Amino acid sequence: MRTLSCLVFLLTVELLAQVGLALAADVQLSEPAAPVSAQSVVMQQKQDVPEGFGIANNDHRAPYHLDSWVGLAMLFSALGIAVALNHPSGATRRIGYFSCALVLLGIGGGLLLMRFNGVFANFEEAALPPDVAKPFLLTFQALLAIVGGLYMLWLGATANGEPDKTFANANEEARYGQYSRYLHWVTAFIFLLLMPMGVLMSALSHDIGLLQYMYVIHKALGFTLLILVFVRLIWNHVSPRPALSRSLNPWESKLAHIVHISLYVVLFAFPITGYMMSTGAGKWSHFFFVDTPLLFEPSMEIVRPFGLLHKVLLPYLFYLIIFGHVVGALKHHYIDGDVDSVRRMVS
Ligand code: HEM
């Protein structure tokens, strides 16, 4: 039974990766779909929103809500992989490594395919000065996904006969528990998916039908992430996180604390600023099958600051934090020789 469910799961992930690649190859051919929402009529009035602030009309949904279904499939795949990667059974963890590899290689390959299909050429009409860096950013993210995918493939290939492990559900004094791990990995997957997806959305030509569906998926997963961050905060309260490693210097502990808080700020700020920017531009947002309300009258006074936050400041702040996080973790692991910090989350 377990083998069968693993097989079905793997096939689903494989299918998703293939659909992603097919869409990537086909991206320039898609036609805009017909509007389906009655509310969208309001949106057909032309808004006075300048280029570069998420201005593509997002009043279309895919037929039969296919966009929302794909968004849900992505969410459940992320959840499935997060559970598999942290599963007590060595065999299931191995399946998790392979599934993760497949998805990462699918994303990286898809982005590279688009790169060489000339899909990013639209960036030449950069609306904001940092836009010129986007082709590079996307290519870099594609390469990172491919390297990550190959690493996962290697982990899967060498994990034959990995022993089973036992985890408590709640956090322990020195290790994160099962629930925190699931929440951590599913949040990380969705976030890391939304980043290139957002940059890609801003790169695609506005008359591409696929763009409308990507908006729906991006916004639905963005709101989901906001909910997950709330759940995570509540869970941290119910089951306090393990203390920071004792081997950290006082300044390192302080820095680690600042990085943690900044990550939470970014996780909250991204969806909120995205929603404000979209509403300010008079665009609907979506939580899967439901259109979320426009909270106020469209106004450029709102689009500009929130657009700058969502599209420039927060992404670059995030890149900086992640860079610091990775450098800090590597230094701690390899230079200070403390393997426990990493183990608290991954073993
Ligand atoms: C954690 C959640 C989210 C992350 C990490 C995220 C990330 C991003 C990124 C990196 C971009 C690309 C910006 C650029 O390079 O121009 C983007 C664009 C965008 N995001 Fe989000 N986003 C999130 C949630 C949301 C939500 C909840 C909404 C709306 C309800 C939203 C709406 C948009 C829109 C409209 C764009 C502009 C696309 C364009 O320029 O055409 N985002 N997002």
Descriptive account of the structure:
This protein has 347 residues and is mainly alpha-helical. It has one domain. Helices cover 67% and strands 2% of the residues. It has a two-stranded antiparallel sheet with strand order 1-2. A hairpin with a 2-residue loop joins strand 1 and strand 2 (290-292). Protoporphyrin IX containing FE binds at residues 54, 56, 134, 191, 194-195, 198-199, 201-202, 218-219, 222-223, 225, 270-271, 274-275, 277-278, 285, 310-311, 315.
Topology order in helix (H) and strand (E) letters: HHHHHHHHEEHH
Q: Give the names of the bound compounds.
A: protoporphyrin IX containing FE
Q: Identify the overall geometry.
A: globular
Classify the beta-strand content into a percent band: under 5%
Compute the separation of the termini in Å. Answer: 26 Å
In short:
The chain is mainly α and 347 residues long.
List the main descriptive attributes of the protein structure presented here.
single chain; 347 residues; two-stranded antiparallel ribbon; 10 helices; disordered N terminus
Topology:
Elements: H1 2-26, H2 40-43, H3 66-85, H4 90-116, H5 134-158, H6 178-203, H7 209-238, H8 250-280, E1 285-287, E2 290-292, H9 300-335, H10 340-346
Antiparallel strand pairs: 1-2
Helix pairs in contact: 1-3, 1-4, 3-4, 3-6, 3-7, 4-5, 5-6, 6-7, 7-8, 8-9
The structure holds protoporphyrin IX containing FE.
